[in-house]
Amino acid sequence: MTLNEAIANRICEECRMRAISVNRLANISGITQSTLNNIVHSSSSPTVSTVKKVCDGLEISMEDFFSSPLFTQLEQEVK
Asked: What's the pTM?
């Protein structure tokens, strides 16, 4: 799994846990729907500030966001 895929999966996981749509998360995070949809579909890489906005919208810390097991076995990006 790549970092972008892990971030996308983590966002979807948090949305499911809160019973909110990705579009609702975009609204409460102050991110455009197209940006968040691109991230969720792994067609773009999120910036750190975008991940921070997502975390703020979810009312969790970045530490909590990245503490998921999704991030423990990522593929090496540089080969």
From this structure: 0.91
